[in-house]
Specification:
Helices cover 41% and strands 12% of the residues. It has one domain: Aldolase class I (TIM Barrel, Alpha-Beta Barrel), CATH 3.20.20. A 9-stranded mixed β-sheet has the order 6-5-4-3-2-1-7-8-9. The protein is α/β, with parallel strands linked by helices. It binds iron/sulfur cluster. Iron/sulfur cluster binds next to loops.
Length: 381
């Protein structure tokens, strides 16, 4: 079991409360990206391709705390960019813990050993170390030799100091199921607490466009991996119904508001993966976004998406509404053969819009105006 019972109970009770209040849309996990700057440039990443002036932006602690309060989700994931490059990250973690949240810091672990002393173990605090496979697979994925070894060393140090440590693993079309299974066995032997799994999202600005999975290949890959697992032996940090969805046994529409994303641009529309616009407040994001324009079957950029930040919330909400479905998968295991659940037709999806350059230009204008104001103040003193 990857998700601690206490966290599952808190999140389950939160979901039930939202339903009792009649809320149609509500967040489960706040994705907080306090910077875009990273110390790696991975082939499958579409999040760091910005001019330096934007990469140099940081969300201050006060803005992070405000985002946590505005959103109200019980779980906060700190991502980026590389969050350990943010000098105030320890304060952000402590502040979020003080608000009673479950916190995960996603990191490539290059700075983790050096910075471990700035953090304290806590039952609601997880490290989530990026590892896309064994040494050869991971170093190829992050386009740099030696990163796997440093990540494993950091995991061992963190475990020795009493931290909870997960790994997050993104799989691409070149993943070999048996090899992935062996990799999971090897990280379990390191004593990790959980594994988060995801197929890579086809970021339009990722350097490597060849190795993204389409939906059919994603489902087959996960069926083959789960077949290799046999009796569950990996502490996967996701709901069984989401894994069942990955294996092609559930038809889910995404729930992009389930993992709302706050970046240096504002509240990102519609989801963690797509930046099609930005709202100034969480309320504006939830109330003014035309959600029906997004999701598989509605929008070309969503056609192949099966990523946890879009669909895990769909699975959790399904489990709360129909607990017998979740119980069936928990008892019988994930089906790895036979017909798959029907997929969402794509014949009515709207074509992709390309808005990245406009957002970058708008942000640069905003930064220049702020710099000019600062210079005026300095000159006047
Ligand atoms: S399918 Fe949903 S989660 Fe995936 S990119 Fe589209 S809106 Fe985002």
């Amino acid at each position: 079991m990857g998700i601690p019972l206490s966290q599952a109970l808190v999140v389950g009770a939160y979901v039930v409360r939202q339903h009792l209040r009649g809320r149609k849309r509500y967040p489960l996990v706040l994705m907080l990206e306090p910077l875009f700057r990273c110390n790696l440039a991975c082939a499958g990443c579409g999040k760091i391709d910005y001019p330096d002036k934007i990469l140099d932006q940081r969300l201050p602690v006060a803005d992070c705390m405000q985002a946590i309060d505005e959103c109200g989700a019980p779980v906060v994931v700190l991502a980026g960019g590389e969050p350990l490059l943010h000098k105030e990250l320890p304060e952000i973690v402590v502040g979020a813990l003080a608000k009673g949240k479950y916190i995960t810091v996603c990191t490539n672990a290059l700075l983790m050993e050096k910075k471990l002393g700035q953090y304290q173990p806590h039952s609601r605090f997880n490290w989530s170390v990026h590892l896309d496979g064994d040494k050869e697979m991971h170093d190829r994925s992050v386009c740099k030799t030696g990163v796997y070894d440093r990540a494993v060393a950091a995991i061992k140090s963190a475990k020795a100091r009493g931290f909870r440590v997960n790994i997050n693993c993104t799989l691409f079309s070149n993943a070999e199921p048996e090899r992935v299974a062996k990799f999971f066995d090897s990280v379990v032997s390191l004593g990790i607490d959980g594994i988060t799994l995801s197929p890579g999202y086809a970021y339009e600005r990722a350097p490597d466009q060849q190795h993204f999975l389409n939906r059919t290949r994603t489902k087959q890959l996960f069926r083959d991996i789960f077949r290799s697992e046999g009796k569950p032996r990996w502490p996967i940090f996701q709901s069984r119904l989401f894994l069942d969805f990955l294996a092609g046994n559930q038809t889910y529409h995404c729930t992009p508001w389930g993992n709302p994303t706050r970046t240096v641009f504002g509240w990102q529309r519609p989801c963690y993966l797509l930046g099609e616009g930005y709202a100034k407040t969480f309320k504006e994001l939830m109330e003014d976004t035309d959600w029906d324009r997004y999701g598989t079957g509605n929008y070309e950029k969503c056609a192949d998406c099966m990523v946890h930040s879009g669909f895990e919330a769909s699975a959790v909400m399904d489990a709360v509404k129909k607990p017998w479905k979740a119980a069936k998968v928990a008892l019988a295991g994930i089906k790895t053969d036979g017909p798959m659940a029907p997929d969402i037709p794509l014949d009515r999806q709207r074509p992709a819009e390309y808005v990245f350059t406009r957002h970058v230009e708008e942000k640069l204008v905003e930064i220049r105006k702020a710099e000019a104001r600062t210079q005026e103040v300095v000159a006047a003193e």
